[in-house]
Hints:
Blueprint: E1 5-11, H1 15-26, E2 34-38, E3 49-50, E4 60-61, E5 67-69, H2 78-83, E6 87-89, E7 94-97, E8 103-105, E9 116-120, H3 125-135, E10 141-143, E11 149-153, E12 156-160, E13 166-175, H4 184-189, H5 195-203, H6 206-216, E14 219-230, H7 232-239, E15 245-248, H8 250-256, E16 258-265, E17 271-277, H9 279-283, H10 294-299, H11 305-323, E18 336-348, E19 358-359, E20 364-366, H12 379-393
Parallel strand pairs: 1-2, 1-13, 2-10, 7-15, 13-20
Antiparallel strand pairs: 3-4, 5-9, 6-9, 7-8, 11-12, 12-13, 14-17, 14-18, 15-16, 16-17, 19-20
Helix pairs in contact: 1-3, 1-12
Amino acid sequence: MSPPSSKLAIVGAGVAGCTLAAQLCRKGWHAEDLSIWEAGRGAGGRTATRRSRLDPYLRIDHGASLFNISLQPPPEVLQPLIEQGWVEAWKEPIATINGAAELLPHHTPSSFFKGECFRGREGMEQLCWGLLALAGETLPTNFGCLVRGLDRDQGDWLLKNADGDTLVRAEALVLTGTLLAHPRSRLTFGWPAPPLQVLAEQLQDPALNHALAAIAALRFEARSTLLLRLPPPEAEAWQALPFRLLLFDPSGQQRWGLWRVAIQPLPDGSCAVVAHSSATFAGEHLGVFGSGSAMARQLGLPPPLEQEQQVIRALSDSLDDALKPWLPQQSCERGDRQLMRWGAAFPVPPGLPPELRWNEDLRLGFCGDFMDGPGFGRVEGAMRSAEGLAERLAHRTPSEAPPLP
């Protein structure tokens, strides 16, 4: 059987990939001419919400808890998302803690909170599901599909799985993340080389080589994340805290190895707590990815269970110590604990230059929060870079899209 075909294959169903699909369809593309390929269980990427088939009340925003729009005008997709009820304004209290365990009013100049803040209604994943709804119900989405290889045939792109089978033949390709192009895939997953780099050696395209060199120079901060689910009796103390989001200033990060803690009440009276480590802590534990990682399961990586428990214990102890002025001792031990590792949680400037986001000869594009420009490193940047690429491709087939200036 021949593989399915697509005019444009989008790898990644995070904010950038879903925004690109939504904006192209809003500007005249047919949803069925696109296809999205995502290794995770569903849409969201770093704005995903962890759920359980066995527990209808479980809902943990284990990546971003909110997103902000720092510049006006906002991305074009934002208003329809608000009007249709997919996202809403963030109105919960935010505080900052320093290394002396002093709770300070939130007044950080961080770029993550400038302007207006929003969240997905009933889960951050609703941001991306709303974007897919804007694209239309006929959009082909392929979840749980890890693109492991890339090839070219008669000018088309071939996306392949780990067995070398072709998943789709596409006239054009957009990568919304750097996994298939960045050398970190060798360190993170033990791949011999990034798939796009392997193909580039055959193609010898100067523009592609330039883009790959720029991508290889990108740096990312990791995060180790403790996911804590507390039953209703224990959740009351956490929900009584004077904040829903706690930030750690530099002295707090140095003392506890924590960066941010989000308190997320659940419909059944229980509570989810998400504790993100500092970049330094995560850098010291890069090889510990968490046994619940969907990517690790797809790659067949053995979970380092002993090391995982050590990291869970370290993060739990730090969280207990930081919050002991307000919570009973060893509060973390009274809940269900899991570990999540974000290997490339935040890109570090400078990002990929905008002039490298589209290769006309190969019909290859890039978008995401790693692109240099407004909102770099945040949801806003992912939206804006995707809308910029969509503008170049709007109302044209991929082969007719003009090169970027």
